[in-house]
Structures are given as C-alpha cells and as structure tokens.
TrEMBL record:
UniProt name for this protein: Thioredoxin domain-containing protein
Gene3D superfamilies recorded: Glutaredoxin (3.40.30.10)
Residues spanning the signal sequence: 1-20
Species for this entry: Thioclava indica
GO CC terms in record: cell envelope
Thioredoxin domain mapped to chain residues: 37-180
Length: 181
C-alpha cells in the first residue's frame, strides 16, 4: 500500500510539471501572450464581495479550473473582453470550470457594474467586487485587465496581462486541456 501511495504522489507531482509543458504547447493565437509557469504558484488568500456585500473567496471553487478576471468599468480593454468571458462561461462553465470576474477599485459600484452587464447582456458572469483593491494588490495586479488561470488545486498556472478573446478556439482548447488534466 505504501508503494502505491508513493507512486501515486510521484505521478501527481509529475502531472503538474507536465501540465505546464502541455500549456506551453497549446499557446496559439491570442493565447501566445499567456504567461505560464513551470511550477504552479501558491495563491495568496484574498476575498471579494457580491452585490449584497457577502464575502467570497476562491476556496469556493476548489476542484475547478478557474479563470479569475480583474477588471474595471472604466477600462476599455476590460469592457471589450467581457462578452468573450461571458460566452466562455456559457460554453465551459459548470462542475469543472468557472469564470470569476472581480471589478476592482472604488469606481466600480454595483450600479455601474449592473448597468454595464445589462447593456452588454452579460448574463452568465458573476458580479464580484474588490472595492478597496485588496484582492488585486494581493495578486500583484498593477494594471487592468489581468486574468489569472487557476488549476483545480487552487494554484496559479498562468496569467494574461491585457485583454484576450477568451471564447476563441485557441483559448477553449487550452482551457479544455486544463479541465481534462
């Protein structure tokens, strides 16, 4: 039994390194700008709120591949990529994958975010907030948008600085590989 556990642990650890190599091989098109790591990075603890002020964290998504998008209503590239993220959540979201959008900074009130979501018909994305920018600072976000790819174990495996077409075939291929991995 001990041999089995040692073998299983070795295989699991090897899978993480192999997963990073696999991600690099899948970076095509707009995904070429995705920075990936040879070893998954631990995520700092941070929380964010919903429309009612309820507190949330990424721990709620443990076991899922998560695409965490830090954005703002005043940011043109952020606004441009939100429909792509909405489509991606509709197509891949569920038991194994989620898009988590976090409006960062005090100028992103629930009213402003709600008006933007309504205007753009964003009906699949969560409305989360980081009013004091604690979450974005914890994640080292210096500009917007920033999208962080988190593996099923809650580790950062990739980061996109700037906007991307998240519903593109290249993005879906990469994310589907993560989900299956």
């Amino acid at each position: 039994m001990l041999r089995f556990l040692v073998l299983y642990t070795a295989l699991a650890l090897g899978a993480n390194a192999a997963q990073a190599a696999d991600l690099n091989a899948l970076k095509e098109g707009s995904m070429e700008s995705l920075v990936t790591y040879s070893k998954p990075l631990p995520m700092p603890p941070f929380s964010f709120t919903d429309d009612q002020g309820g507190e949330h964290s990424l721990a709620e998504y443990k076991g899922k591949v998560v695409l965490v998008n830090f954005w703002a209503t005043w940011c043109p590239p952020c606004r441009e990529e939100m429909p792509f993220l909405n489509t991606l959540e509709k197509e891949l979201g569920g038991d194994h994958f989620a898009v988590v959008t976090i409006a960062t900074g005090g100028s992103n009130s629930p009213a402003k975010v709600g008006a933007f979501f309504d205007k753009e018909k964003l009906d699949a994305l969560p409305r989360f907030y980081d009013e004091a920018a604690f979450a974005s600072r914890a994640m080292g976000v210096l500009g917007l948008p920033v999208t962080v790819l988190v593996d099923k174990d809650g580790h950062e495996v990739g980061r996109m600085i700037g906007g991307a077409q998240w519903d593109s075939p290249e993005a879906k291929k990469l994310l589907e590989a993560m989900i299956k991995g």
